[in-house]
Amino acid sequence: MAKWKVYLTRELPKPALDMLRAEVDLEMNPHDRVVTREELLKGVKGKDGLLSLLTETIDGEVMDAGLPTLKGIANYAVGFNNIRVEEATKRGLPVSNTPGVLTETTADLAWTLLMASARRIAESDRFQRAGKYKGWAPMLLLGQDIYGKTLGIVGFGRIGEAVARRAKGFDMRVVYFDAFRRKPEEEKKLGVEYLPFDDLLRQADFVSIHVSLDETTHHMFSTKQFSLMKPTAHLVNSSRGPVVDERALVEALKAKRIAGAGLDVFEYEPEMVPGLAELDNVTIVPHIASASVETRTKMGTMAAANLLAMLKGELIPNLVNPDYVKYRKP
Length: 330
Ligand code: GLV
Ligand code: GLV
Description:
34% of the residues lie in helices and 15% in strands. It is α/β, with parallel strands linked by helices and 330 residues long. The protein has 2 domains: 4-101 and 293-326, NAD(P)-binding Rossmann-like Domain (Rossmann fold); 103-284, Rossmann fold. The mean pLDDT is 97. One glyoxylic acid binds next to loops.
């Protein structure tokens, strides 16, 4: 039997490539850059499977370019807002993501940004490198305490929960907002309190965002939300850029409406809106929340396993659109 053909939009850690190559004919974007739209449309043609990244928009046109051979799309990310899932479902195509394996790693990075923002680490590093340090000073680079403060978690899924767990060691009060409220006994066990969104914004010293991006969360943070936050508060975003109105954030940071922000993601990624990079009270890193050797490897083998299950017609471990079966071609 001829091997299945798979298109991979960017090189992944080797264990994932090995897993795929053992069972499929693998064609991979050979460049160390995001695949172009043309390359993607050409690459998926005649393939049985597509392994995509969050950097590509996978819409109906891409799916049609892969049909009739295409059997499914495995995304190398927990977020799958880059895939028009309803379009896949309508075409009988399964879509998968990589949940769970990056939860702790992403929570670590959210905390890294929180602490870096509170203690002005990036700014201090720039100061020190520039040779500006002329001796210890009582008023030099004062930040804010973290321990004992209130942490507000917006979006309380796996990652939000992992962020909450880490707050225990800092003796924090942890409040959360989510469209789905947890059961009281669960809240008690996790040591968290539910608050309506506006109340959370008013009370939190640190706000960390862990929602997924969709129509309901687009610009969930804009001028109004920043105006509700404490002037001493810090905002951390390691979810998706468009959840935050980045222009409004620049204004809020400039006007010191809020004290600082730590950002892993950007509204127009990889670009930043004008003015953001010039601000000292923002810590910015290039979408590295899941970027540990261990986790990127696990994401790769997980995405590969999802894709192989699609090709073999087996149960797909991390299927995001179970309804696709209704439209599957025999
Ligand atoms: C990374 O941003 C992911 O969604 O996995
Ligand atoms: C992802 O892992 C989430 O649900 O937060």
